[in-house]
Specification:
Blueprint: H1 2-47, H2 50-62, H3 84-89, H4 98-117, H5 131-160, H6 165-179
Length: 191
């Protein structure tokens, strides 16, 4: 009888330890997957030179000899499905610290808001918008992208940890090369 009780206790302890091990493994996998997705989004913005291109458009329409209205808008072809890991992991974000969870949600909401800024044709401003309004809008978008990059670069090491950071950055760069579709010429981009 004592052996049966000892066996039951052992089985209970084993199950509890294994359950905790599995939860830890899933949390770690979620953290690394989110870190990779965020790093890829940041690298996508940087590789395509979006900030520099937005600033170039702002300067173009701020120049004294600029047209009175937008004739050539800055275009990004934004599609759905950029946040697959986040969408699949949303229920697990509560397992993270409050501060980290809030930063992650802020990052994805900011990225989503940026994508939503562009029309279905990809233009942030439409042809015919007065040049002064376009200048302010382009500069605001550049600032929002810069802030998103800063936030993403702050989140990734906190999610991945220093041991995994180089692997995350390498994986993000490989994903960018493999799946990225260039949207415009980043020539002359400053960031």
């Amino acid at each position: 009888m004592l052996e049966g009780f000892a066996g039951a206790v052992f089985a209970f302890i084993f199950a509890a330890c294994y359950g905790e091990f599995e939860r830890h493994r899933r949390r770690k996998a979620t953290r690394l997957a989110l870190a990779t997705e965020i790093a890829t989004i940041v690298q996508l913005i940087q590789a395509n030179g979006y900030i520099g291109l937005l600033e170039d458009h702002a300067q173009l329409y701020a120049a004294p000899d600029a047209p009175e209205a937008v004739v050539d808008p800055f275009v990004i072809t934004a599609r759905e499905g950029y946040f697959k890991v986040y969408e699949a992991s949303a229920s697990s974000i509560g397992d993270l610290s409050e501060e980290l969870a809030m930063s992650i949600v802020s990052f994805y909401q900011g990225a989503s808001a940026l994508i939503d800024t562009f029309s279905s044709e990809g233009a942030a401003v439409q042809v015919g918008i007065p040049a002064p309004a376009a200048v302010g809008f382009y500069r605001t978008l550049a600032t929002r992208m810069r802030n998103l990059i800063t936030l993403g670069n702050d989140i990734v090491p906190r999610l991945a940890g220093s041991d995994y950071l180089p692997k995350i950055q390498k994986a993000a760069a490989e994903l960018l090369v493999k799946f990225e579709t260039p949207v415009g010429s980043p020539q002359g981009a400053r960031e």
